[in-house]
Amino acid sequence: MRKRKGVSEIVATVLMIMIVTLVGFTVLLYGMGYFSGITSARDLANAQTIDALQERFVIVDCHFTNTSPSSTTVTVTVYNYGNENIFISGLYANDTPIGTFSPVEIYPNQNNNLPINGTLSQAIQGLGDNVEIRVVTTLGNYYDNWYTS
Question: pTM (2 decimals)?
């Protein structure tokens, strides 16, 4: 009987090509899933940065009212002159939080400026004192200015 050597070499070559192809597709699919996750995280970060850059607001007016010897009511009027809604998440007077409240949403280009009230846990000492008022949004932007009590 005659031996056929060529058949086993062909089968071995076909099996090797199939194994290499399978490993290649596995690496390709894993890489596509991995890099699409990175792309999504980058896109989300870029969207948040763009939203933060589009926030534009200013403190229009600020009033102080001593309600007791140990507290002061602060009324800050904020105007949103940007194109995006902003959410005010904090008010500060001389780096001291002015009360706690839920974020206040301010729509763009409102005809009426929105007053925000807060209670400072200390009294403003004298008439004519300079007080730094800071308004902070949920995206981390802030506007601050000095006001006279």
Answer: 0.64
